[in-house]
């Protein structure tokens, strides 16, 4: 990625104009006579991907990257704290989602990649993104790069690196969602709202589990994101792991200590999934992915293909997002409809 076109002096001026505050950014509650004294909530410190981050006030101009991250903010009712969001336009119908008002009230800054110039133009005081959810060393867009511009960052917990190269994931996927809700509840002083959401989501998951398949009836499930030479799939630390297992399935890639990663087709054949879940997004529609799976000769004897047991879920259902609990309920119903394992 090329360097910013604007002069360094402009970048510094914009950085100094930011109003939010994180570990390295100073901020005020307000301006002039409107400044309010601290209510005792701040400063607050949260741990994010192993780093302690302190906020002296709630960020006011947050830029989010990707649909799941954006909807975490919307679920917490934080539209008024956002400068806007960045995401492609391949994330489904946003007019019918539970947080459609958030999309209506918040500016869609770009359908392309997030970058330093964009967040400077938005006068962002915090960027909520993640490794491979916007942050990428190869393009020079990292928390460290933003820090040098005076902009703070919060990393999606699903994307935390675990110290094994660039492998991601430090906790169970639903725990990652609850961690981010709880952390952001503290950062933005909406802790009651965050805890209410967590209780609601836990109940929703428990209800789905109560009716899910158990024991020998649990089908082996493989998540197919895409790829023909090699499949891109999910390991133990991406959303599909908890979605599959809590919906009554046995995740065939549960031994992969990573979030989203590539495996070989021979591994898929060897583990013989009885159900395949397709991640629906991007330039290749779900029906095209399905056609490929059904006609790819090395998979011909795989149980899911022989019995035509393929389920489609949306991208935002499967990445960390407030739609994860509903996805568990939906998948549990699909798995029950298959009647457990074949005889």
UniProtKB/TrEMBL annotation:
Signal peptide from the UniProt entry: 1-23
Gene3D superfamilies xrefs: Nitrogenase molybdenum iron protein domain
Domain named Fe/B12 periplasmic-binding: residues: 61-343
Keywords for the protein's UniProt record, in alphabetical order: Signal
Family that this chain belongs to: Belongs to the bacterial solute-binding protein 8 family.
Protein name per Swiss-Prot or TrEMBL: Iron transporter
Biological source species: Streptomyces ambofaciens
